[in-house]
Amino acid sequence: MIEEYRGVWVFIEQSDGEIAGVSKELLGAGSKLAEKLDVPLAGVLLGEGIRELSSQVIGYGADIVYLIDHPVLKHYRTESYMKGVNFLAEKYKPEIFLYGATPNGKDLASAVATDLSTGLTADTTMLDVDIDKRLLEASRPAFGGNIMATILCKKNRPQMATVRPKVMKALSFDESRQGKIIEEEIVLNEEDMRTKVINIVKDVTKKANLADAHVIVCGGKGLGDAEGFKLIHELANTIGASVGGTRDVIEAGWLPHELQIGQTGETVTPKIYFAIGVSGAIQHVVGMKNSELIIAINNDPNAPIFEVATYGIVGDAHEVVPKLIEQVKQLRVEQGGEVSYV
Amino acid sequence: MSEKFDVIVVGAGPAGTACAYLCAKSGLKVLQIERGEYPGSKNVMGGVLYRKQTEEIIPEFWNDAPLERPIVEQRFWMMDKESTVTFGYKGLEWAKEPYNNFTVLRAPFDRWFAQKGVEQGVLLINETVVTECIVENDKVVGVKTDRPDGEILADVVVLADGVNSLLAQQLGFRKELKPDEVALSVMEVINLPKEKINDRFNLEDNQGCTIEIFGDSTKGNLGTAFLYTNKDSLNIGVGTTLSSMMNAKLKPYDLLDYLKNHPMVAPLLAGGESVEYLAHLIPEGGFHSVPKVAGHGVVVVGDAAQLVNAIHREGSNMAMASGKMAAEAIIKAKERQDFSEASLNKYREALYESFILKDLEKYKDAAHTFEHHPQYFNDYVPMLNQAMSKFFTVDGTPKREKQKQIVKGFTGEKGTLNVIKDLYRAWKAVK
Amino acid sequence: MHIVVCVKQVPDTKIIKINPKTNTLDRRSAPAILNPYDAHAVQEAVKLKQALGQGKISVLSMGPPQATEVIKKSIEIGADEGYLISDRAFAGADTLATSYALSKALEKIAAKHPIDIVICGKHAIDGDTGQVGPGIARRMDIPPITNVIEVTKFDKENRIILVKRKLTNGYEELEVQLPCLLTVEKEINQIAYSPLPNMIRAARYKPNIWSVGDLEAVDKAQLGLKGSPTVVGKMFTPPKLDGGKLLEGAVDEQVKQLIEVLSERKELLNVK
Ligand SMILES: Cc1cc2nc3c(=O)[nH]c(=O)nc-3n(C[C@H](O)[C@H](O)[C@H](O)COP(=O)(O)OP(=O)(O)OC[C@H]3O[C@@H](n4cnc5c(N)ncnc54)[C@H](O)[C@@H]3O)c2cc1C
Ligand SMILES: Cc1cc2nc3c(=O)[nH]c(=O)nc-3n(C[C@H](O)[C@H](O)[C@H](O)COP(=O)(O)OP(=O)(O)OC[C@H]3O[C@@H](n4cnc5c(N)ncnc54)[C@H](O)[C@@H]3O)c2cc1C
Ligand SMILES: Nc1ncnc2c1ncn2[C@@H]1O[C@H](COP(=O)(O)O)[C@@H](O)[C@H]1O
């Protein structure tokens, strides 16, 4: 009986006592859905020694926190987390259940959806509900085109989706918010676990840089070849920006794959985003459209990138970019110092 | 070293596939090696596929093959800067079985054709480059590929590796091509909705048209251009001999651009979207350049053997026919278990008795005539256009007077005798 | 050691071009290829088999009859056997129904040769979901390890492997008991250039093709469209975003305007 299922849930990803950004964003997005459906919003929090995080989950918008605190849950593992989440979902029956589209979020959601025998929409970038039918409308860029598809799960509950990081907006933290904490216990034995986390290594190289960069120069296939792509590096060096590329550029081997921006790469939200020789396919645009100022350079006036760009220059990158570099350098001379973006 | 095959065919163009298909069909163990991602992935042609030679390999192929349109009209344009004299033939009998010719796109066609071979038992492997023939005691006994453990043996190796045939060069059968023996041809596939094509070329859905363009299509260089209709795209291309391109310091792209923007051509293409750009060589040496085509354990077919009739832009048909003759010779050789040059020379004999070498011999001087006498393209095409313009312009001049003027126009500058000489020379070349 | 790799045939999205004005695919349809991640999955199986000095690699695919091509491609890379499940009843499957059908086929394969490791690609490039792998693992009740970037150790005696798994920023090292399921990232290995004998074997190879009837104890309600809880509701062009101001004038002029814009937004630009 699908009517038994009520409430919007968000899986809260945490590590080292910190809630992942995407979980906060999902609480923001989830609260809108919950309001429309007139149901409470819940955060699902699993881990070891994470009780204190409950108040944060509430502060970011949850009305209820479902909590399981257990030593076996110290690190994320599919087998243990899945047990906890399945248990909660079967007991409390949410109608909508959202996860971040991160490695762990996707992993967990896929396992849970299989056990609960329900539908799961991957890499959603837009969320809404049909209030009458109480249907989650999870939209994502569809295969191959500049087109979005709305995926529905009509007959099974919960309706589940993983959601791209950085596309939803978190609410600002409200310390005074009140909520209910429901703690549950489940039986988990370390001896039953078939996987062990030996070590977690944080990587603070390029990839992290790109996600946090304030200015990004992204080059596309329009640069022609690896040689032409050097212009992108040159501009980035001149203004102190990070370099990124489209999937086509990565496939062509002009950049390492961790520098791909878009649906299957990084989602970025810099202050300034240069898209040069980038057509603006939807799969790319979902990964950068929340940048503050978008500047596009493309020789095709009809390129879809101009629909996203704050400012567009129709022209040949090989002509425009060297001029831009030259003028920035000149500006530096005039200002008698460094030009850099912070 | 791994197993041994009866036949290894290098290349999966029309020549190689025709040969592989027929050998496999008669029960031989055939390995076909293609360097492209799949057969046809990089192959290029203007797009006229001849029914007859294809049918001789696969009867009623038109029911199954990925063809574009049956050709019902062939037009010839003598094009000047702002005018063109055109003639041609349209016959609706060509719109039905058994048809005459078809337009095709090579990528799907070659793939389909090779698949037919596979269905006959050919073992086809792609993305593998044959780097050399393995020669033992002056006999070709197999090939070496660029893959690890890449050697493989066979009784007969068929070189169907196209115009450059490095393999035939390595064996010393032929020399590197000279710039005046090959044409460089560039073409584009331009998407255009079916309805527009039908309108602009006055066609029904199941009818195609070819236009061969002479004159101002090549900026006065020896060569020709073409415009063919596919289902919902056009193939447009232009080629000149490598030597004239070098002499005139022409860039192939510029030539094609010039053609696409020509006032006679542009309206036919308007609104289309270029989806593919291709460039390829065409062997144009003709009869004089045909190399040695059979040796111990090896035969050479198709473009690799320079079997192209440049004047009538026939190539794929000669490729298929030569592949077929080679297959027949190989099958006989297998029966005799004799793969010597003498045995495989049956192929050479068949080739020289067939239309292929007869046609090539007929036109053997044509290309040279035109190359050394550029006036055919530079002078006579414009003259013809001026003549037609004069003749058809209604301006009150009596027709008899017009004819006089026209004749004067032809002979005035050059002198009557020269014109007659030129005409005789041209007639001799293509007669 | 028996490794089964799940491989999917996908359209080559590198080649597919869409017309941005009409939102339609270029009709010159892109060729179908082996999902690139799955190629790495097969390669990893080959690597493991070589390191162990023994073992058998099977590949499994669900799809139309043409999907035999990706099985042949897998044989080129070094797989030993290939199975295709192909039936109208499978058509229209979402990830849930796909993992069900594949797990039924795996059951049948395992009945003959017990399976030690299943390897999938991180995701299929046509849908980018990455949900099928973990789904299969749940149905087989073996641990799924997603986003694997390296198999560092293979302890045959204790039937344990050590793997590195990619995280949002960094990676973790896991010790996993066999049998298990891995989904692999591209950086896990480089696809080797296949030796000629593999190419010939692949050209000759005839995959095993199974229909629904060939599988044991299948609940048809869980297959294909019927067994798929998700449906596509509507397709739409994303709402146009604002912006879209094209700068005008000669290139120099435009670049100058751009520099002005950048300088105006002082909060963005910091000239030291
Ligand atoms: C499931 C799926 C997931 C995907 N995920 C991603 C993803 O995460 N990230 C991503 O980027 N893509 C992704 N894609 C691919 C995406 O659909 C596009 O194919 C890709 O973004 C296009 O890259 P591009 O803009 O560099 O190349 P193109 O589309 O080829 O565009 C090149 C542009 O450069 C312009 N240009 C050409 N010459 C010049 C010149 N001299 N000067 C200036 N401009 C010039 C052209 O007008 C054109 O607009 C995905 C696709 C699928 C199917
Ligand atoms: C622009 C243009 C227009 C034309 N128009 C027409 C026309 O309208 N009608 C017509 O009948 N003919 C036309 N031709 C000629 C026709 O294309 C050729 O004559 C015909 O393709 C010859 O077939 P082939 O099999 O000998 O060679 P190809 O078709 O060139 O095939 C050779 C094959 O061998 C492969 N190969 C080469 N080297 C190796 C190697 N070392 N190892 C493995 N594989 C290898 C290649 O990848 C290729 O697939 C045209 C040619 C051009 C360039
Ligand atoms: N139809 C299929 N046949 C075989 N394997 C599949 C199929 N669909 C998905 N897979 C496997 O599951 C992985 C993830 O696919 P997906 O969840 O569709 O992104 C792929 O890389 C394959 O290994």
UniProtKB/TrEMBL annotation, chain A:
<keyword id="KW-0285">Flavoprotein</keyword>
<protein>
    <submittedName>
        <fullName>Electron transfer flavoprotein subunit alpha</fullName>
    </submittedName>
</protein>
<dbReference type="InterPro" id="IPR001308">
    <property type="entry name" value="ETF_a/FixB"/>
</dbReference>
<dbReference type="InterPro" id="IPR029035">
    <property type="entry name" value="DHS-like_NAD/FAD-binding_dom"/>
</dbReference>
<dbReference type="InterPro" id="IPR014730">
    <property type="entry name" value="ETF_a/b_N"/>
</dbReference>
<dbReference type="GO" id="GO:0050660">
    <property type="term" value="F:flavin adenine dinucleotide binding"/>
</dbReference>
<keyword id="KW-0274">FAD</keyword>
<dbReference type="InterPro" id="IPR014731">
    <property type="entry name" value="ETF_asu_C"/>
</dbReference>
<feature type="domain" description="Electron transfer flavoprotein alpha/beta-subunit N-terminal">
    <location>
        <begin position="8"/>
        <end position="197"/>
    </location>
</feature>
<feature type="binding site">
    <location>
        <begin position="246"/>
        <end position="247"/>
    </location>
    <ligand>
        <name>FAD</name>
    </ligand>
</feature>
<feature type="binding site">
    <location>
        <position position="298"/>
    </location>
    <ligand>
        <name>FAD</name>
    </ligand>
</feature>
<dbReference type="InterPro" id="IPR014729">
    <property type="entry name" value="Rossmann-like_a/b/a_fold"/>
</dbReference>
<dbReference type="Pfam" id="PF01012">
    <property type="entry name" value="ETF"/>
</dbReference>
<dbReference type="GO" id="GO:0009055">
    <property type="term" value="F:electron transfer activity"/>
</dbReference>
<feature type="binding site">
    <location>
        <begin position="260"/>
        <end position="264"/>
    </location>
    <ligand>
        <name>FAD</name>
    </ligand>
</feature>
From TrEMBL, chain B:
<dbReference type="InterPro" id="IPR039651">
    <property type="entry name" value="FixC-like"/>
</dbReference>
<keyword id="KW-0274">FAD</keyword>
<feature type="domain" description="FixC-like C-terminal">
    <location>
        <begin position="367"/>
        <end position="430"/>
    </location>
</feature>
<protein>
    <submittedName>
        <fullName>Protein FixC</fullName>
    </submittedName>
</protein>
<dbReference type="Pfam" id="PF26311">
    <property type="entry name" value="ETF-QO_FixC_C"/>
</dbReference>
<dbReference type="Pfam" id="PF12831">
    <property type="entry name" value="FAD_oxidored"/>
</dbReference>
<dbReference type="GO" id="GO:0016491">
    <property type="term" value="F:oxidoreductase activity"/>
</dbReference>
<comment type="similarity">
    <text>Belongs to the ETF-QO/FixC family.</text>
</comment>
<dbReference type="InterPro" id="IPR059103">
    <property type="entry name" value="FixC-like_C"/>
</dbReference>
<keyword id="KW-0285">Flavoprotein</keyword>
<keyword id="KW-0560">Oxidoreductase</keyword>
<dbReference type="InterPro" id="IPR036188">
    <property type="entry name" value="FAD/NAD-bd_sf"/>
</dbReference>
Automatic annotation (TrEMBL), chain C:
<dbReference type="InterPro" id="IPR014729">
    <property type="entry name" value="Rossmann-like_a/b/a_fold"/>
</dbReference>
<feature type="domain" description="Electron transfer flavoprotein alpha/beta-subunit N-terminal">
    <location>
        <begin position="22"/>
        <end position="219"/>
    </location>
</feature>
<protein>
    <recommendedName>
        <fullName>Electron transfer flavoprotein small subunit</fullName>
    </recommendedName>
</protein>
<dbReference type="InterPro" id="IPR014730">
    <property type="entry name" value="ETF_a/b_N"/>
</dbReference>
<dbReference type="Pfam" id="PF01012">
    <property type="entry name" value="ETF"/>
</dbReference>
<dbReference type="InterPro" id="IPR012255">
    <property type="entry name" value="ETF_b"/>
</dbReference>
<dbReference type="GO" id="GO:0009055">
    <property type="term" value="F:electron transfer activity"/>
</dbReference>
<dbReference type="InterPro" id="IPR033948">
    <property type="entry name" value="ETF_beta_N"/>
</dbReference>
